[in-house]
Write a structure and sequence with these properties.
The complex is a heterodimer of chains A (247) and B (284). With 247 residues, chain A is α+β, with helices and mostly antiparallel strands. Helices cover 32% and strands 25% of the residues of chain A. Chain A has one domain: ApbE-like domains (T-fold). Chain A contains 6 helices and 10 strands, in the order ββααααββββββααββ. Chain B has one domain. Helix content of chain B is 26%, strand content 17%. In chain B, strands 1, 2, 3, 4, 5, 6 and 7 form a 7-stranded mixed β-sheet that branches. In chain B, strand 6 and strand 7 form a beta hairpin. The chains are: A alpha+beta (247), B alpha/beta (284).
Chain lengths: 247, 284
C-alpha cells in the first residue's frame, strides 16, 4: 500500500509492502501530524512559536522539544557551526532537524507495530526497512536538481537512511553561519546515505551549507557516504558511495 | 583514507630548504634542525615539516629588538611561503589532498614517496565512472616543483650549522611523520627565542586575501606556526582552496531511466513542489 499526504508543508509518502496496512498508515500519519502541531514555526499555537514569542520559558519546554534541541546542539558542534537552528533574527527554527527526527521516530513506530517492509519519504528524506513486494532492496532515485522529473542516480541504501539537501529549498533556512551573505550556489544538491534518516538529514543539511567542502567533510565522516552535484552538472561522490549503487 | 598532495611535499621540502639553506634563516638563529608545523584550517591543508629540535649557533645574548626583527623576518618568510603554496595549489588544480608530512632525511624510514590513491579505487568500490581529475604524476617526473629550489639562495657554508643534512639527498619519506621519529637530539640550549606566542602582522597575499601567522615558542623552540587567516573570503580563493580535496570520483550526471521506489531530492520550491505533488499523487 502506498499513500501520500501533505504534512509539515511537504508531501510525505508512506509505502508499506503487503496489503492490509491501513491502521499502521493512519497511526504513522497521525504521529507526523502531531509533531507538526508541536514544531511548526508556521503554526501560531505550536510549542516552538510560543517559545519564540516568549510565552513559554526554555525551562518549561516538552521532553520532545528538549530532545530536538539536544540533537540540534550536537549537530552544530559536529559541523563546526554550519548547522544552527538559531536564525540570524535570533528565533529558533528546528525544522532542519525535526523532519528527519520525526521520520525516524515514525519508522520506529511502524516497525514496532510489526511491519518490517516499508519506506517513508518526507520531502526527499527517506527512512526504509526490509524489502519491497518482490523481496528486493528498496531502490531510491536521486533527483536531478535541474529537472525535477528526472533522476540521475539509483541507490540501494539497504535499510539505512538517505536525505538530500539542495538549493531549491523553500525559504532560506540553510545558510553559511561563517559568512551569512555567502551565496551557496556552487553545489546545488547533496545526497547523503547515513546510519538512519535523521543522521543522513542533519549531515546533508550541513554538507550542503559547506558548499564545495561539504563532500570532503562527508568523505572524512565514518558511516556516511555522499553524492554532491554542482552547478555544472558534475557529481562528486565519496569513496564508498558506489557501494550503494548496486542492489 | 589519507590522501597526499604532491605539490605540498615540495612546499614542505621548501620549508627545509629555507630553514636549512638560507643565510637569512641562519641569521635569524634557525638551524637546519628547526621543527616547523604549519597548518591552515581554512584551507583544510596541513603541512608538517618535522625535523630535529632547534640547535643554537651560540649562546650569544640578543636584544629584544633583534629578536623582534628575527621574528618579523620569519613571519614574512612564512607569509611568502603561504603565498607560494597558494599559487602552487592554483596551478595544480588536478592534484588533491588533505595532509602532507615531510620528514627529515635523518629519519630511519627511507621509502619513496607514496603514490597518491587513484580516485576511489582504493576503497574497493566499483569504479564505473570517470575519475576526474587524473591522479598527479609521480614526484620524479613532475616538472612544476622546479621553481621551489630556484627561489632559494645557495647553501651557506655548513660551518655555522649543526649536522646540516642535505635535504635533497634522499627522497623524504611521506606519511605518518606526526608520530615522529625523534632523531638524535642535540641538547637544546638557549635559542635566542623567548617563550610565548607571537602573532605576525596581516600580510596581503596579492588579490587572494590576508595571511596572518602565529608562532609559538616553547623552551626556546619554535613548536608551532599557525595560519590565523588564509585566503578564503574572495570567491576565487574559495575555489582554489576547495580544490585541495581528496581525489574523489566525479561523473557528469545523466538522466536514468530505471524505475525506482521513491526519489530523494531537496525540498521543492512551490512551483516544483506542485509539479512533484501532482506526479506523486498520480502514482499514489
Amino acid at each position: 500500500m502506498r499513500e501520500t499526504r501533505i504534512i509539515m508543508g511537504m508531501p510525505i509518502e508512506l509505502s508499506v509492502a503487503g496489503v492490509d496496512a491501513h491502521k499502521i498508515i493512519e497511526e504513522a500519519f497521525s504521529h507526523l501530524t502531531s509533531v507538526d502541531e508541536q514544531f511548526s514555526t508556521y503554526k501560531e499555537n505550536s510549542e516552538i512559536s510560543r517559545l519564540n514569542r516568549g510565552e513559554i520559558s526554555i525551562d518549561a519546554i516538552s521532553p520532545e522539544m528538549k530532545e530536538v534541541f539536544a540533537i540540534s546542539e550536537k549537530t552544530k558542534k559536529e559541523t563546526n557551526g554550519y548547522f544552527d537552528i538559531r536564525k540570524p533574527n535570533g528565533l529558533l527554527d528546528p525544522s532542519g532537524i525535526v523532519k528527519g527526527w520525526a521520520i525516524k521516530n515514525t519508522a520506529a513506530l511502524i516497525n514496532a507495530a510489526g511491519c518490517q517492509d516499508f519506506f517513508m519519504n518526507a520531502g526527499g528524506d527517506i527512512a526504509m526497512s526490509g524489502k519491497n513486494d518482490k523481496g528486493e532492496e528498496w531502490s531510491i532515485g536521486i533527483r536531478n536538481p535541474f529537472k525535477v522529473n528526472e533522476i540521475v542516480k539509483v541507490v540501494y541504501p539497504r535499510g539505512k537512511g538517505i536525505a538530500t539537501s539542495g538549493s531549491y529549498i523553500r525559504g532560506n533556512h540553510i545558510y553559511n553561519p561563517h559568512n551569512p551573505s555567502e551565496e551557496l550556489k556552487e553545489i546545488v544538491s547533496v545526497s547523503i546515505v547515513g546510519p538512519d534518516v535523521l543522521e543522513a538529514d542533519r549531515f546533508a543539511t550541513a554538507a550542503f551549507a559547506m558548499g564545495k567542502e561539504g563532500i570532503l567533510f562527508i568523505e572524512n565522516l565514518a558511516g556516511f557516504e555522499g553524492y554532491a552535484i554542482d552547478v555544472g552538472g558534475i557529481a562528486t561522490m565519496t569513496s564508498g558511495f558506489m557501494a550503494y549503487a548496486a542492489p | 583514507m589519507q590522501k597526499i598532495l604532491l605539490p605540498l611535499v615540495f612546499i614542505g621540502v621548501s620549508f627545509l630548504y629555507i630553514f636549512s639553506r638560507s643565510p637569512a634563516a641562519a641569521l635569524a638563529g634557525i638551524s637546519a634542525e628547526t621543527a616547523i608545523i604549519a597548518t591552515s584550517t581554512d584551507t583544510g591543508i596541513t603541512i608538517e615539516t618535522v625535523a630535529q629540535p632547534i640547535v643554537p649557533e651560540a649562546t650569544t645574548t640578543q636584544s629584544e629588538a633583534e629578536l623582534a626583527a628575527r621574528l618579523a623576518l620569519l613571519q614574512d618568510r612564512l607569509a611568502k611561503l603561504e603565498r607560494t603554496k597558494i599559487a602552487f595549489v592554483a596551478t595544480q588544480k588536478s592534484v588533491n589532498t588533505a595532509t602532507v608530512s615531510v620528514a627529515s632525511p635523518s629519519s630511519p624510514t627511507t621509502q619513496p614517496i607514496a603514490q597518491p590513491a587513484s580516485g576511489a579505487a582504493s576503497s574497493g568500490a566499483p569504479a564505473p565512472t570517470v575519475v576526474l581529475p587524473p591522479p598527479p604524476p609521480p614526484l620524479a617526473t613532475d616538472p612544476v616543483p622546479a621553481f621551489v629550489p630556484a627561489a632559494i639562495p645557495p647553501p651557506p657554508p655548513a660551518s655555522g650549522l649543526v649536522p646540516a643534512t642535505p635535504v635533497a639527498s634522499a627522497p623524504p619519506p611521506v606519511g605518518n611523520v606526526g608520530t615522529g621519529t625523534p632523531a638524535p637530539a642535540p641538547p637544546p640550549a638557549a635559542s635566542g627565542y623567548i617563550d610565548g606566542t607571537y602573532t605576525g602582522s596581516v600580510a596581503q597575499a596579492g588579490s587572494r586575501g590576508p595571511v596572518q601567522v602565529q608562532v609559538t615558542i616553547i623552551g626556546g623552540l619554535i613548536t608551532d606556526v599557525t595560519f590565523l587567516s588564509s585566503p578564503s573570503a574572495a570567491g576565487t580563493s574559495v575555489a582554489i582552496n576547495a580544490s585541495a580535496m581528496p581525489i574523489l570520483t566525479q561523473e557528469a550526471i545523466t538522466a536514468q531511466s530505471a524505475s525506482v521506489a521513491t526519489v530523494s531530492g531537496a525540498t521543492l520550491t512551490s512551483n516544483a513542489f506542485k509539479q512533484s505533488l501532482a506526479s506523486a499523487l498520480a502514482k499514489a
